[in-house]
Amino acid sequence: MDNLELIKSQTRCVSHEIRNHVSICEMYTEIIKKHLEKDEYKNESVKNAIECIKKSLKIIGNSLLDLKSFNNLSMQNCDFKSLVEEGVQLSQAYVQGKNVKINYLIKNTAIVNIDDNKLLACMVNIIKNGIEAIEMKGEITIIGEVKNNLASIKISNNGKPISKEKQKEIFEEGYTTKKTGSGLGLHICKQNIEAQNGELRLNKSTPKSTEFEIIIPTVK
């Protein structure tokens, strides 16, 4: 067995084992939800948390299935506005206990044909990075807009900027500024968006604002 086949075999085995434990989390999430409904316990925050956990587990599960099969995309028609709202909701968990606010504005909407889980994973990754760049107090701003058959998601933060020397390297495999980072997040995001005929780019990074933009085509 050559090195590539060995890596593929090991990847499939590891993803299979992780998927088993993700399934356990999914099962207990459903159990909690049913008990809450049975007891007629109504709390919007708890409900939103459970839905976010379920969506996150789905994203993880689909990513693991990708590793097993090396089939990277599952395209479907989705409403752009709903997707952006879901990405914002999933990201709210990262601001808990921090003096950071997430603001968003979705100007209009359209149908996009994409892998929704990969787009959401990309959004969450960029928002999470922005939150981590804010040392004390700050804001994440997300603007969604459809124009000229393209859907744009601009994600900005007012945290620590990326140096000019490093701005050209951020999408390279292995690049990271974090002590425990893998340097894969933005690299994978860019690959996944480009595989869907889209674009992920860094528009600017100054002391006032760092802005990333995801651009994907709409269904004509």
Explain how this protein is built:
With 220 residues, the protein is α+β, with helices and mostly antiparallel strands. The protein folds into two domains: 3-69; 76-217, Histidine kinase-like ATPase, C-terminal domain (Heat Shock Protein 90), CATH 3.30.565.10. Helices cover 47% and strands 23% of the residues. The chain has five helices and seven strands; from the N terminus they run H-H-E-H-E-E-H-E-E-H-E-E. The protein has helices spanning 3-38, 44-69, 80-91, 116-133, 185-195; strands at residues 76-79, 99-106, 111-114, 137-147, 150-157, 199-205, 210-217. It has a five-stranded mixed beta sheet with strand order 2-4-5-7-6. Helix 1 (3-38) packs antiparallel against helix 2, helix 3 packs across helix 4 (116-133) and helix 4 (116-133) runs antiparallel to helix 5 (185-195). The chain is globular and about 55 Å long.
Short description:
This protein is an alpha+beta fold. Helices cover 47% and strands 23% of the residues.
Tell me the helix content: 40-55%
Main beta sheet: 5 strands, mixed
Number of domains: 2
The CATH class of the largest domain, by name, is: Alpha Beta
CATH architecture of the largest domain: 2-Layer Sandwich
Sum up the structure in keywords:
globular, 2 domains, 5 helices, 220 residues, 5-stranded mixed sheet, two-stranded antiparallel ribbon, Heat Shock Protein 90, alpha+beta
Fold topology:
Blueprint: H1 3-38, H2 44-69, E1 76-79, H3 80-91, E2 99-106, E3 111-114, H4 116-133, E4 137-147, E5 150-157, H5 185-195, E6 199-205, E7 210-217
